Amino acid sequence: MLRKIAIVGANGFVGRHLLELVAQKGIGSVGIVRSAAAAVLVQGLSGTPFQVADLEKDAMTPLIPALATCDGLVYLASVSAGPRARDRTDPAGLVNVLAACRAAGVPKFVFFSGLGIAHYGMNPHCTNSYFLAKMAGEVALFRSSLTSTVFRPSYLFGAGDEFLSPLILRIAADPDIEIPGEGGYRLQPLAVRDAALAVLGALEHSEASPRVIDLVGPEVLSYRALVGRIASIMGRRVEVRERPVNEALALARESGYFGLRPHDLACLLCDEVSDPSAVESLVGGKLEPLDGVIARTVAALESSGSQG
C-alpha cells in the first residue's frame, strides 16, 4: 500500500490532478517544483512542497531527505529546460533525480514520455528534439536499477488542460474553425483522472521492469471529428476551414499556431494510436468515455466564466 509519493513537476496539469487524487485516497505527497509560486500551489492541494531551482545542477544531495520515506516517484517535468537545442535532449536533471531515488531508497519510478517515440526516424512528425528528449529520458531510466514504468501518453483531457480547453474556447468564440491540413490524423484522448489512477496502479503493483505503456483512451477519432464532437456537445455549429500543413508548421515556428509550438503541432500530426487495455488494467475498470470528459471540461469552463 502506498503511503507517500514524490511528484516532480507537481504544479503542472497532470501533477495537480495527481495531487488531488492522492489526497482523496489519504496518500501523502511531496511536490518537487522550481518556484515559490508553484510551492504555494502544491501546499494548497495538500502536498508537501520541496523547491529545487534547477534539477540539472547537482540536486541529489538536497533531494535525498525529502525522498527518504517515499514509496515511489513520478517524473512529470520536461527532460530539460535548456535554451539550446542540444540542451533540450540532455537528461541531466532526470539522472540527478534517479541518483537521489537510489540514495534515498525509493523503489519505484514512473516517467512520462510521449506517444510516438517508437516511430522516431520513421514518422517525420515524431522525429524532432521533443521526442529525442523523451527518448533520452527513457534510456536514462532503463539504465537505472529502479523498478520503472514509462507512460507514453496521448492527449490528456480535463479542466485546465492545454489542448481541449483552448479548443473549446475557440469554438465558443468563433464558429469558423481553422485546422491544419484535412484533419484526418487520429487522436486517442484519455481523461486526466484516469491517467492519475494509472500512475497509482503502476506504483501499487509489482510487475516486470522496465515496462512501457501507451497511455491512451477508449476511443480513436480524427482531429476533424473531435472538433465536430466538441461543437455538438456545446450545441454549436462550426465551419471547418483547412490550412495547408506546411503553412501551419511555419506559423508554429514563427509565433505559434493557435497557441501550439512546433513540437505541439508535430504531436498533433503524428497520427499515433494504441491499445488501451493495459491502461484499463491499471485503472481497474473501464476508462471514462470521451463525451463525458468533453462535457465536464465544457461545464468547468462555463462555471469559471471562461467562455464569456
What report would you give on this structure?
The chain has a seven-stranded parallel β-sheet with strand order 3-2-1-4-5-6-11, sandwiched between helices. A two-stranded parallel ribbon has the order 7-10. Helix 6 (164-173) crosses helix 8 (223-234). Helix 1 (13-24) links the parallel strand 1 (4-8) and strand 2. The protein has helices at residues 13-24, 36-44, 60-67, 92-104, 129-142, 164-173, 192-204, 223-234, 245-254, 262-269, 277-283, 290-304; strands at residues 4-8, 28-33, 48-51, 72-75, 108-112, 147-153, 156-157, 176-180, 186-187, 190-191, 211-215, 221-222, 239-243. It is built from twelve helices and 13 strands. Mean pLDDT is 93; it is low at 80-87. The chain has 308 residues and is α/β, with parallel strands linked by helices.
Q: Total helix count?
A: 12
Strand content: 15-25%
Order of helices and strands: EHEHEHEHEHEEHEEEHEEHEHHHH
Q: What would you call the structural class?
A: alpha/beta
Helical percentage: 40-55%
**Strand count, sense and closure of the main sheet?**
7 strands, parallel
Q: If you compute it from the alpha carbons, what radius of gyration comes out, rounded to the nearest whole angstrom?
A: 19 Å
> Would you report the number of β strands?
13
**Shape annotation:** globular
Strand ordering within the main sheet = 3-2-1-4-5-6-11
Low-pLDDT windows of residues: 80-87
- How confident overall, as mean pLDDT? 93
- The quaternary structure here is single chain
- Distance from first to last alpha carbon: 45 Å
